[in-house]
Design a protein that fits this description.
Elements: H1 12-27, H2 32-57, H3 60-69, H4 78-91
Helix pairs in contact: 2-4
Length: 94
């Protein structure tokens, strides 16, 4: 696993911390790539939960105010809304 093209944006201290994390993952017997994929998957699930909450629980005026702060709220297509609703109702809601 490498730092890739972001090498110029990563300080030596950050690179050392990243290496320490990688060594600890390897020491525990876990695969680095699988660990990274697991973290991405967890982050996407959290985003879906957040997006579902925003669409179903918040008033429209709050959402409009949030658009200035959080650009992720801009993704408001019908297909995305429908897929999020189906996923959330299937896996996360009672």
């Amino acid at each position: 696993m490498s730092l890739g093209e972001y090498l110029r944006d990563v300080s030596l201290k950050q690179a050392g911390e990243f290496a320490t994390e990688c060594y600890s993952v390897l020491h525990e017997g876990r695969a680095l790539i699988k660990e990274r994929d697991r973290q991405k998957h967890e982050a996407s699930i959290e985003f879906i939960k957040y997006r579902f909450y925003v669409q179903t629980q918040l008033k429209q005026s709050t959402i409009v105010k949030s658009l200035r702060i959080n650009p992720f709220l801009f993704f408001k297509s019908f297909s995305f809304t429908l897929s999020v609703s189906i996923i959330c109702s299937t896996f996360f809601c009672n």
